[in-house]
Inverse folding.
């Protein structure tokens, strides 16, 4: 059955068959009993890129374009290691990074992690930071 971003919302109740853990478990398998029995790990509670993309389609269909863009970036970031996520967070704090450092980060995201939406976001932040005097000197 094809995905309908309007009729299939909310995914968890309308299309639980589309929601899976990173390890491939179905939504019905994510239970307190499974947790207590040791059949679940912390990573099983993370959203997958596919679920985030589907949620993005739901947001887009509802006219919530910015939320859809955020979910698209979140889908990309599921493939980025936690230490790199922390590096991005730190780099985006005001006065922490130069324009060149942010560009290098954008290139790394696009090249190493295939995250073009997030790379574009970093570049957009770089431009806004430059405008507002929030960049670190080169």
């Amino acid at each position: 059955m094809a995905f309908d971003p309007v009729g299939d919302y909310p995914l968890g109740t309308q299309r639980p068959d589309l929601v899976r853990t990173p390890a491939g478990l179905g939504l019905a398998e994510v239970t307190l009993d499974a947790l207590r029995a040791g059949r679940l790990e912390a990573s099983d509670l993370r959203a997958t890129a596919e679920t985030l993309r589907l949620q993005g389609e739901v947001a887009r269909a509802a006219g919530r374009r910015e939320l859809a863009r955020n979910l698209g970036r979140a889908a990309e970031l599921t493939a980025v290691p936690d230490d790199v996520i922390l590096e991005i967070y730190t780099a985006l704090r005001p006065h922490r990074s130069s324009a060149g450092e942010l560009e290098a980060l954008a290139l790394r995201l696009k090249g190493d992690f295939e995250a073009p939406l997030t790379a574009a976001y970093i570049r957009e932040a770089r431009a806004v930071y430059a405008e507002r005097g929030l960049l670190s000197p080169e």
The chain has seven helices and no strands.
